Structures are given as C-alpha cells and as structure tokens.
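Human: Here is a favour to ask of a fellow structure person. Comparing notes only helps if you start from a blank page. I am asking you to supply a protein in sequence and structure-token form. Write it directly below this note and I will take it from there.

Assistant:
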Amino acid sequence: MVYVGVGAGARKGGGLRGRLRRYTSGRALASGLGEGIFDRALADRVWLRERLAEVESGRPMRAVQWGRAALVWADLHVCWTLTEGQEEALALERRVLSAQGVDWWNWAHRAGQ
C-alpha cells in the first residue's frame, strides 16, 4: 500500500515526522492511514489467524501492539517531495493518484473503499 497525501507542514504534532511517529507507535489505529492499514490487515486471513493464535495461546496483545503489527504487515515505504505551496501539492497528489495498478491509500479514495 502506498499512502498519498498533502503534508501537514509545521502544525501541532510535528508535521510529517510527528504523524509517522504516531503510526509507528501503534497509537494511530483509528485515524487516517492507521485505520486504513488496520482495516486491510483485519481482512487478511493469515494476519488475523496469527493474532488469534496469540490470543488462544494466552499471549494476547494490546490494541497498540495490534496496530504496530498491522503496520509491519503493510510494509510501508516512506518518501516525499517538497512543493512550493498547497496548490502545487494538491496537483501533484492528483497526478500520483491517477497512476493505475497501485494500491493507493488516500482520504479521497477511502470513501470508495
């Protein structure tokens, strides 16, 4: 899965760096990309069987641990580019999302899932 979105800039939470820190900690399960990854992991029978086997063996994980496990499962790779402003960033986002044959995750595409 490839996440495509316009960055937050220097907003509260540390911008892109802060957002990535929340995802990698497992604490962003119910927000944006974290939720999208978790939904897809839950739909993967192998991943879900592994989690259920942990529960059945007496080693249940906490929700944040499930979130981290889902993030590992997603095998995300992060890259970015800087743009001159929001208009250019949104235009680039639209161009990237128009590429076919890629499993994109984006708020705009999320509504259609």
Remarks:
- The first helix runs from residue 15 to 25.
- The helical segments are 15-25, 32-42, 45-56, 63-74, 86-97, 107-110.
- The beta strands are 2-3, 104-105.
